[in-house]
Amino acid sequence: MAGPAAPLSERFGQIYGPGQRVRVFRGPGRVNLIGEHTDYNLGFVLPMALDLACFVAVAPGGEGLLRVYSDNLGETRQWPLARLTELEPARDWGDYVAGVARELLRAGFALEPVNLLISSTVPVGSGLSSSAALEVATALALLGDRRMDGLELARLCRRAENDFVGMPCGIMDQYVAVFGRENSAVKIDCRSLEHELGALPAEIEIVAVNTMVKHELGQSAYRDRVRECGEAVEAIRRRKPEVASLRDVSAVEFEAVAGDIPEAPRKRARHVVTENQRVEEFIAASRRGDLRRMGELFVGSHRSLQYDYEVSCEELDFLVDAALAMPGVLGARMTGGGFGGCTVSLVRPEAFEEFQARLTAAYQERFGLSPQVYRCRPSAGAGEIS
Ligand code: GLA
Asked: Which of 15, 168, 230, 253 is a good FRET partner for 65, with 20 to 30 A between their CA atoms?
């Protein structure tokens, strides 16, 4: 076999034995440009799929088992297919695989015994969505030649994460892992579940910088934010019963009802309604090539996440503020769920080398950690590779 699948097929042979007909599926990670914590409030997001990706190799197995080996961790998990539907989560990486298999069974797809090999270049805990990359690539590997509508695929993978892994995430990560496109950011309307593709101005680099930390608080805070947004909607509905989600409230309307909402949910809601507006404005600015405005909106998004949504942390704030003080940086913000993971910056191409060197040195000096820096290229969504 030629092409990028060849090394993984060879590795498969080393682990499960040679001479098998191996297929390889890819699910990309993503960076979210703007529209943070808006997806589960049915608003707008603007992610792009990355060339960092999770690869899942698959070949027929035996003994009624779904067996999986992670090359990143050097660990195996296996489950009897017949017991998958009553399985309890083990609270580790295997849950993503088992959760997807379980959802496929629940959706009426029969599963044959298979061996899987996972190899991912998406750093875990980086906020670049290693989990959705794994879910989507796993689903495609288990489906094989069977076709599933892209939206169904994204929803099924999200259900695996919501119902089995136990993380109440929105649809963004799975959606862009499926629908990402080369050279395009993907604007997703998380209520209609439709999307539009759009190119970004050529004169900017999208640069993700990894704090290399992931604070424990993240998971419980995510749940708290989902709940607080629900509380805000409840308070608004007393006066405006037609409001079903924060998506239904414009920034102007919000000011009129803000006084009815208790403080914490009010701050969360203010982030969400202003962030939805920033997504629209960012896309408009990008279309007219207004780099300055794009940068300002990035900074506005970060401050809102920092002070109103309260999901940033010291390391993220440091990387944002240090980036903003550097030449050729148009804007910077945290990306993903928060409490660690990555920032995303808009950088002029000629300033990139200096940006990388100075930011790395400053972060090392402050936190004693070497941040990874990724130049992000908008890449294709999930599929089989050969
Ligand atoms: C995580 C979730 C997404 C989204 C982001 C925040 O990545 O998986 O659904 O809510 O956080 O924008």
From this structure: 168
